[in-house]
Amino acid sequence: xxxxxxxxxxxxxxxxxxLAVTGAVGIFRMPNFFTRLHAASVTDSGCACxxxxxxxxxxxxxxxxxxxxxxxxxxxxxxxxAAHALSKTALSCGAQPTPSPREER
Amino acid sequence: xxxIIDITLLTFLGITALAINRIDKLFCVIMLSGIYSxxxxxxxxxxxxxxxxxxxxxxxxxxxxxxxLSTIGATDTQQRSAPRRPLFALLVxxxxxxxxxxxxxxxxxxxDPDAPIHQHVAPxxxxxSQQEIGSDNIVTSILSSYRGFDTLGETVVIFxxxxxxxxxxxxxxxxxxxxxxxxxxxxQDDMGKHLVLRIVIKMFIPLILLFAxxxxxxxxxxxxxxxxxxxxxxxxxxxxxxxxGLDAAMRVVSPRTLSYIAALGxxxxxxxxxxxxLMGGNFLDYNVLRSNPLQGQHLGIFLIELGVGTTVFSIMxxxxxxxxxxxxxxx
Amino acid sequence: xxxxxxxxYWVAIFLMMTGFYVVITHGNLIKKLxxxxxxxxxxxxLYISMAxxxxxxxxxxxxxxxxxxxxxxxxxxxxxxxxxxxxTAVGLALVLLIYDRYGTIEEDEISLKDDxx
Lengths: 105, 331, 117
Fold this sequence. Notes:
Helix content of chain B: over 70%
Number of helices of chain B: 14
CATH topology of chain C: Helix Hairpins
Order of helices and strands of chain B: HHHHHHHHHHHHHH
Number of strands of chain C: 0
Oligomer: heterotrimer
Shape of chain B: globular
């Protein structure tokens, strides 16, 4: 059981770190605001929640785990909301989600 | 391992500081300063200063960023002039930096337990705090009891800052905000358009306020206390204002009520001091508040943290209202 | 010269000097205030670095822990953070009033308008 938890937490934290790196690379390399926003929100939602879950698995079952669980639920709700707020504002300011490739170069 | 985290965070801080210097768009600069504050808070956690990290994250990242954004909302968003005499300034800065680095050569090594700073009064606080004050969090016991007078000064400084901002920007401007908006024909956005945000914010605001109360009353046992709690409570109100508009928020709690609450907070703090005087002890000597000195300390710390939290909350919301009502003037 | 011994202090001084540079070269008032914030935060880093004890933990009494970091600089910096944000708020209120009066927040344009009066 312990080794299973250890391996599961390593898997979660590793995936979270990978998502963080790809999100950071995506913010620089993506051509459009909305694609960059998607990269950032993958880091915000996916990486943060996976890291928190991995840490919960690491710490066993005590008070810090419950606190981490609360923080995890908060992140699960607030990160997509933040991305939603950003994209809504951008849309209302006139940015278009799908430019033609010729316009971007 | 800790050293690697330390060095990485410090490097990021340096890069962020250089970026703040170079970038012209003020919005980006403000976002970078928020990132800088969060990196500082992380650095403070690795250096075992958990209370300080909490305060820096709440105050530096939250309130300072919000106030800066309100200001550029009411003024320009682009820096227009080029840096003046950059080479001479670079010379002055390098000379000052070199002198300061020469000064740090004499300082004890980072983390040295025999440094002079750890010798005189700090071991006494660490060893005697539990018997004399009874709280687990030594930072709270020093802040509220051993150095309570400084914290009274700090609360009065926050109160004065709120007074200054209200004096500069004016109550009447805030109270007439709704009339000005209606006269200019600006109506509040149709709330139905922002359904997701409205529901999520309605879900979060009670939790934020509850968390603020938790932080306020657990200052004795973990990181927390009046300042952090006041700022988190204020951020719940700021959240409400951002979603439902300044007019609605000022109907929930009016600026005049906030100024009374702020004065009440400072009055509670000073009142505890005067009460201890009247009961025969020194100013802010909590031992005389109850028959048992430890109980007296607990009551005293509870009351003054309440005063601090109340003042900080009301002044932060008041300053935010003052800045936001300015934006209405621009439109 | 042991780099590990003093690295924190040197980086704090570097950040302090960056903030100083921002304050003295840029003419935009909001940029100056942000530079001042940089300066104050770097001083906090300097103090908190001095408080750290190798092998210590946060100064919250817990059973089984012998060594704690020094809590006194933490208290001083807590006060300093809050006073810093209060000062920033007053500074920003002044910037708002300057903008109302002069129509700009660039220093050279303000002094031009002042000379023209």
